[in-house]
Design goal:
- By secondary structure, the chain is of the alpha+beta class.
- The protein folds into two domains: 66 residues, Arc Repressor Mutant, subunit A; 169 residues, Beta-Lactamase, CATH 3.30.450.40.
- Helix content is 44%, strand content 20%.
- The chain is built from nine helices and nine strands.
- The strands form two sheets. A six-stranded antiparallel β-sheet has the order 6-5-4-9-8-7, sandwiched between helices.
- A hairpin with a 4-residue loop joins strand 2 and strand 3.
- It is globular.
- It starts with 12 loop residues before the first helix and ends with a helix.
- The mean pLDDT is 91.
Amino acid sequence: MSPAPLDKRDWIAGLEKGLAILEAFDDQHPRMTPTQAAARTGLTRTAARRYLLTLEHLGYLYTDGKLFGLTPRVLRVGWSYFDSARLPRTVQPYLQQLSATLNESVYVSVLDDWELVVIARNGGSRVMTTGFVLGARVPAPLTSPGVVLLGYRPDQDSVRAWLSGAELTPFTPYTLTDNARLEEKIRQARADGHAVIEQQLQVGVRGIAVPMKNRHGDVVAALSTNMPIGKESTDAALRRVLPHLQEAALAMLNAL
């Protein structure tokens, strides 16, 4: 989870601070003054104002003279990953076939620190609101692919340490926020080779996920599907979906 140490001679502090400014904007802070940006990034007001003005000059922010907000140009940075990364392009044909077979939306996701990020998807023809958009970021322990990826982390001590101090927001009445129960689900996913998560982020939605391994046996991502629970039992959903997820993950193995 932690990046390799970097020599101080190679560290560009200004780049770190500029990215911190961009990451400070969220749904709770869509627009900010220099004072607010400074408080969220640990910068002085003067430094925050200079970074905001520079980013506004480069087109990544707009301002009305008092408040600053993000512009669509910021998306260039994120979409550069989808345009350049090999994994999303490689898995797309497999996802198209899998979603047609299941008639469900299917996803490939990876971990970014302790968040799950969707890097590829393909939608089934079923009309529903159980899916994620590309680039969506959600708490890993509350999703089936996140639980799978946490379960296959080589350093389980770091997973337990993070869980012990994590404070997860309940999204539904069924959201698990008890660290011990979450840890048990993560252990179970490793033992079973798959994870089933129900109604953690959205009421009435079930997710099933399996690990995706490369030819060296390393888990590089998770393959998953979301579906409405309806009248289908968990066991019935597993019998219907799991073999196809496992088959698709195996088919992708030699391509990764």
